[in-house]
Amino acid sequence: MTPPALSLASASHGPAGASAPADSPLLQVRGVSLDYTTGNTVVRATHQVDFNVFQADRFVLLGPSGCGKSTLLKAIAGFHPTSQGEIALAGERVAEPGPDRIVVFQEFDQLPPWKTVLQNVMFPLRASRTLGRKEAEERARHYLAKVGLSAFADAYPHTLSGGMKQRVAIARALAMQPKVLLMDEPFAALDALTRRKMQEELLALWDDIHFTLLFVTHSIEEALVVGNRILLLSPHPGRVRAEINAHQFGLHSQGGAEFQSTAQRIHRLLFDTPAPDAQGAADAAPAVDVPGRVRLAAV
Ligand SMILES: Nc1ncnc2c1ncn2[C@@H]1O[C@H](COP(=O)(O)OP(=O)(O)OP(=O)(O)O)[C@@H](O)[C@H]1O
């Protein structure tokens, strides 16, 4: 089935998460180390990671497999405890999951198959008692229209393509109007053409609603297309290696000389082993807004 394009009807809801002043970070991650403990074994997933996400940022966590991107996302969502450091959203410490942080995963089976598309989108609104039935249905239909799926409101997930299922998951997440939308490699299981289309549609949706996005990927190209800011994490355990400003890039810039040279530069930053002294300095330095961090304002 050919997935329909996103509809860009004007928003009836303002940008989500408008509670933090524009110049202060919406999400603060401070010195966060995350571990998995199995019996006597402790696996460190990230080590003393710092970053800030501001209102309406499209902030990307980029790094090689196993560097702790998904674990960081889980910690921000409130599903994984911090071993060191602190995470705060709109000034409140994150201690548990909440409706102000909604995650869209890669897996297509994140939609209960016994619920229709409309019921899927309404479900968190009802379960969290955010809205009554009538209001929840109105809100759900509004966001289904935004992802171009109004005609599929009564369809069941198994009748949809992978891209359409991801659109439903996005509509369901945005309908909650979270302070931050968390996406964990949401397009990684899609074929290349659908993935590109979904990136395009996500950006069009962002142009429309200006939600705050935290997006995990291990694709350098996807990070440059989707993000306005990109945090590079080192191989396991993930430490902050650099922050890149990517405002100037979009789908139109793929293949261009500046895009290619930035992609190559990111590749070097991610995979070239720093000299021992430089690594030591990076480990010692707090990562945000201080000399010593590799900060590339205009790459
Ligand atoms: N449930 C778990 N128990 C023990 N170790 C885990 C568990 N989940 C992840 N890890 C380990 O934590 C580290 C970070 O994993 P994580 O999945 O966060 O990385 P990632 O950067 O998201 O990787 P990928 O891009 O492959 O999804 C890895 O070394 C991984 O083996």
UniProtKB/TrEMBL annotation:
Residues 1-22 are annotated as: Disordered. It comes from Pigmentiphaga litoralis. Keywords: ATP-binding, Cell membrane, Membrane, Nucleotide-binding, Transport. The keyword Thylakoid does not apply. Belongs to the ABC transporter superfamily. InterPro entries: AAA+_ATPase, ABC_transporter-like_ATP-bd, ABC_transporter-like_CS, ABC_transporter_ATP-bind, P-loop_NTPase. This is NitT/TauT family transport system ATP-binding protein. Residues 29-260 form the ABC transporter domain. Coiled coil: none annotated. GO terms for molecular function: ATP binding; ATP hydrolysis activity.
